[in-house]
Amino acid sequence: MSRKLILLIAITALFAVSHAQRRGSSNNDGFDYELRAGANFCQIDGDASGHYNKLGFHAGVGTSMPVSDDGRWRFCVEVALSQKGSRIVNSSMDRNISIFYVEVPLMVAYDFLDSRRLRIAAGVAPAILAKANVTTDKTLDNAQSNNYKRFDILPLMASLRYRLTDHIGFDFRYCNSMINTAKENGSGTYRIFRNNKGQFNRLLQAGITLTF
To answer: For labelling, which of 51, 127, 136, 200 has a CA lying 20 to 30 Å from the CA of 18?
Structure first.
């Protein structure tokens, strides 16, 4: 992945956070920003494994802006590093797939309750491949490591966040790729249409949020 592109994403994220901070955190109708971190429970549809038995991590920063007069409808923009992949263990293979992405979730959210502490959101989370590391029988598998496309263009994402206090909360997410992420498709499953066949990241996320 281009270092210039990573730098551009990082600068954009820092600008968004700085802008949100300048607007102030006490106004529910204004911008806010959030830090997130937690665990990923991952699998890859189409890799002959069907369990969320790959543990990864995620960490990111984001901001949200109001799109309705009362500030409850919001547009959320984030930048995050997310480890996805799968673990295939059977009688003939022990394969560990770790795929690191820089992802940019873009979601529409709604804040529930009088306190606005419950937020439900949905959208897309396009991602750029940072690194893929595949080991087969505990040996680095270069062919498999190089088999992943540079972009995961269209993962769908749904999110539920509840703030225990004005700043600290828990966040749960579901993410599912809609476009094949592998260069060599093999005989994997498909999404949307039959020619879109191959491997698709699917994961559950659980984490802690810090909102300002």
So the answer is: 127
* Pair of tokens at residue 105: 């979730």
Full pLDDT tens readout for the chain, 212 residues: 455 555 555 555 555 555 545 544 444 568 888 999 999 999 999 877 768 889 999 999 999 999 999 999 999 999 999 999 999 888 788 999 999 999 999 999 999 999 999 999 999 999 999 999 999 999 999 999 999 999 999 999 999 999 999 999 999 999 999 999 999 876 668 888 888 999 999 999 999 999 98
DSSP 87: E
Structure tokens at 15: 């600008």
What pTM, to 2 d.p., does this model score? 0.85
**Contact indicator for 202, 175 with CB cutoff of 8 Å:** yes
Q: Give the residues across from 44 on adjacent strands.
A: 201
Full DSSP string of 100-161 = EEEE--EEEEEEESTT--EEEEEEE--EEEEEEEEEETTEE-HHHHT-B-SEE--EEEEEEE
For tokens 């960490």, what's the residue?
A: 59
47 DSSP assignment: T
What token pair was written down for 163? 């703030």
Structural contact between residues 211 and 169, judged by C-beta atoms closer than 8 angstroms: yes
CA distance 207 to 204: 10
Question: How far is the C-alpha of 117 from the C-alpha of 23, rounded, in Å?
Answer: 20
